[in-house]
Amino acid sequence: MVNIINIHEAKTHLSRIVDEVAAGAEVIIAKAGKPMARLSPLAGVPRRKRLGLLKGKIKVPDDFNAPLPDDVIADFEGR
Description:
alpha+beta; YefM-like fold; 3-stranded mixed beta sheet; 3 helices
């Protein structure tokens, strides 16, 4: 997905925008609505993995690995 931002926003949020581009996003910078420049990630630079990004945001139920009820299994199997 390509994001189009105005030059004022690019100046104000440059650090955040560079982080997004480094993570694989592409950004077009526009001046008065006219595209002027494109920021894209460098080819061949491995992306850094951010471990624990969703820590504390997702709760896995205690019965996550419990067997499914027979009626649910039957629905999956088309019975």
